[in-house]
Amino acid sequence: MKSYSSGSVMPITSQTFVRSTALLLLIGLLTLMGIVGTNIWLVERSQVYFDEVLEGRIARRAAIELRTSMQDAESGQRGYIITLEDDYLTPYNSAIDRIDEQLEQLRLVLAPYPEAQAPLRQLEADIALKLDELAETVQLAQSGDVQGAMQQVRTDRGKEAMDSARAFVDALIQAIDNRLVEGVANQRNTMTALRWVTIIGGIIILGVIGGAIWAVWSYTQELARARRAVEEANASLEDRVRERTSDLGRANEEIQRFAYIVTHDLRAPLVNIMGFTSELETSVASVKSYMETQPETDDPVAGEARQAATEDLPEAISFIRAATRKMDGLINAILKISREGRRQLKPEPVDIAEIAEISAAAVHHQVADNGGEIATDIRIGKIITDKLSIEQVLGNMLDNAVKYQQPDRPLRVRISARHLPGNRVMIEVEDNGRGIADTDHERVFELFRRSGSQNNPGEGIGLAHVRTMVRSLGGDVTLTSRLGEGTTFIINLPRDLRLYLGNTGA
Amino acid sequence: MNTARPVTIIMIEDDEGHARLIEKNIRRAGVANEIIPFTNGTDALAFLFGADGSGMVNKGRQLLVLLDLNLPDMTGIDILEKVKANEHTRRSPVVVLTTTDDQREIQRCYDLGANVYITKPVDYDGFANAIKQLGLFFSVMQIPEAE
């Protein structure tokens, strides 16, 4: 197994990926909220400054207008007193008319500022004093007492009031100007702050996006690496499976070759034994027939020779023959199986239903004799496999079903087939025969082994042969059985033999 | 085979028991010709091609070769190849009598010029019967003289 922990890039697991992504998102969200909040606050402040500036300007204008009106009134009064011409009274009167209104406006503007209330009251008093003085002097001049009016002016009572009012207006204008300058400076600061907040927020958001991109990128890399690792592991696993399968195939071939050679070489001496036993039998037969023609004598040697020729020798020969015949049968069985194993399999589309019908027809008479029947339930189409093997396997199973049926009930056989997951098919041959004892379920598939009472001839190779054939088709055969009730053989095959042969390199 | 020049049967069979049984059964078919048994390929080749290995030694002989493919020192295929390649022996009939029934082996033997290929039957009765019939076949066969 390859290890990735030594990589230079720290690997991102899915958990850390989720955590870091969530954290980045949170940072991004907070930054954005900060930017928006600061913006709103700064705009709000800017609005306040703007309003203040506007108010300041209004207050300034009101103050200046009031001062101008006062001065107009004073100039008009002075002109009239000096010239006594009514022309000068016109600006005086219009100024007097405006002053009340303008004072009211100033009062309104300064209403929110409590610190301005005391000076304002002083201003009102000064203005009232001044207006009083103006009105008095104008009235005196109108009545012809110019000297009196001059006298009034000379008291400086009006001038003081005027100076005081002027000083207030100047101070007010000064204060308002200061305030305006301050407001503009504040406005500029707010703008600068806004700019910085935007820049810093932008940088943070860029950082968050960069971080997110990095996290996604390295997580993707990690995923790709993991997938490659899985693919590599898979590939090596497949290689190993292929290797093992071909090893097994080779070993199997080796065993079959071995069996073939052994049986061949065993058969050569056996042919001699059988041949010469046969020759011996012929010879003994002639000796025997000669002995039988000889009259019986009392000679014990002749009696022994007669017994040997007529009884002992034929008996010995018959035992030798029986033994060699049995041995010949066994060797032939092994030879048959090993030859079957060496047979070149021919993958072709095989219709299981058709073979089942043909196999059933082959044993139809034997089955029908006892009132039995064979049913088929094939739910698969054609599969790619070796036709001859399937014919032999099914034929063998049906022969067994007939051979080992329970004599007291009609034979019922059911051949069914269906698909299995993993591109395989399952063929079942179910009978209601005498069944196989639990201890023999595996044993019956072994060569020369049989189960139950041996009331039928047989060498015990049928099922061994079946298993060999099914395995060489890439499948397996098992059974379930209850003694006295019946047996079900289950054959599991690949749907396409070519794939199996391709894997074993056969 | 009952011509003026008697046909000699060359039997190349490593198992002496088999050789004896083959001979017995051929005799039972009424074949009385000389049978020369060889148990290995080297001796058989020495007889067939003479000391010089040219095959001239066979001039005027009528030979029939009974050949087993499994020999201790070489395969019967080698002998078959040599017999059929030699201008003096190539017309002599070769009967391959062996245990192998491999299709490729049978094809190969006929490709190399074998005249008959017989698989030894597995059981003795069949074996004896086959040899007897082979003997009967021999008795009606025309065999050319080696050049």
From TrEMBL, chain B:
PROSITE patterns: RESPONSE_REGULATORY. The modification 4-aspartylphosphate is found at D68. Keywords: Phosphoprotein. InterPro entries: CheY-like_superfamily, Sig_transdc_resp-reg_receiver, TCS_response_regulator. It holds the Pfam family Response_reg. GO terms for biological process: phosphorelay signal transduction system. Coiled coil: none annotated. Residues 8-135 form the Response regulatory domain. The keyword Secreted does not apply. This is Response regulatory domain-containing protein. The lineage of its organism: Bacteria, Pseudomonadati, Pseudomonadota, Alphaproteobacteria, Hyphomicrobiales.
